[in-house]
Design brief:
- This protein is mainly alpha-helical.
- 68% of the residues lie in helices and 0% in strands.
- The protein is built from four helices and no strands.
- It is globular.
Length: 66
């Protein structure tokens, strides 16, 4: 069973899904790029995904993002 994503992680995953880079996401959310990278690492672990594209697919299938 996957661990629940935080609201910030959901926002990041949504922005990844629509094609934004880590730099753009950091700018939009007012965080550093390293913070976004750390959050993505957490997202991948929680969703048992190997990369961001796989994480987005899993999130869509699970109804986490739409």
């Amino acid at each position: 069973m996957q661990k629940k994503l935080t609201e910030r992680e959901k926002k990041i995953l949504y922005l990844v899904a629509i094609g934004y880079s880590n730099n753009k996401i950091a700018s939009i959310l007012y965080f550093g790029v390293d913070t976004i990278k750390a959050d993505m690492k957490s997202i991948l672990k929680k969703l048992s995904a190997n990369n961001s594209a796989e994480a987005v697919g899993i999130a869509f299938r699970m109804g986490i993002i739409d």
